Design the sequence.
């Protein structure tokens, strides 16, 4: 597998594959990017790749979107160091897929499609199957419509907290006020 702390990047291209590159540790090529592995499974151009953030996640997960109208999720087996993939969903999307992007903590995956929609997917912790939980289309482009409840439902209107970083940092009380030391708690309730 990819050693912890090693630098590795993933690329996709017109050869229908995902390529993994790592920084060489060999004496003659030290510090240069070299091909580490080639992941094959798509049947048309790979338009985007995205690593899932490892915050609280086990192992590496890489998503790739393709002009073949599919998203593949790639995992590396820790024992054999072999990569395998599975489709995000069994049937193809209705059009070319342009982008894939994981949420900050990696529990949601956004997929943008050539039909002007973005679908939001979540991995079910019980069985590892990804389920569509939301859809954004051109008629509601500035609003995310969640069709099923997430693990924790967001509040109707979340109050905007007043954030104070600590008394070691300075911040103005308003745009026109001078910078003054902050001595209040880290987060204050708004009234």
Sequence:
């Amino acid at each position: 597998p990819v050693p912890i702390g090693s630098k590795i990047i993933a690329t996709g291209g017109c050869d229908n594959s995902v390529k993994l590159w790592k920084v060489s540790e060999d004496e003659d090529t030290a510090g240069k990017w070299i091909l580490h592995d080639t992941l094959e499974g798509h049947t048309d151009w790979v338009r985007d790749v995205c690593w899932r953030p490892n915050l609280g996640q086990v192992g590496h997960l890489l998503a790739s979107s393709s002009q073949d109208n599919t998203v593949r999720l790639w995992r590396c087996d820790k024992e054999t160091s072999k990569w395998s993939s599975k489709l995000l969903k069994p049937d193809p999307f209705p059009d070319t897929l342009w982008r894939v992007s994981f949420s900050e903590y990696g529990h949601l995956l956004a997929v943008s499609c050539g039909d002007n929609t973005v679908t939001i997917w979540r991995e079910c912790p019980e069985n590892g199957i990804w389920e569509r939980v939301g859809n954004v289309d051109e008629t509601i482009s500035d609003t995310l419509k969640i069709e099923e409840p997430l693990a924790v439902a967001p509040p109707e209107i979340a109050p905007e907290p007043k954030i104070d970083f600590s008394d070691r940092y300075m911040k103005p009380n308003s745009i026109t006020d001078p910078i003054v030391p902050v001595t209040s708690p880290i987060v204050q309730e708004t009234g």
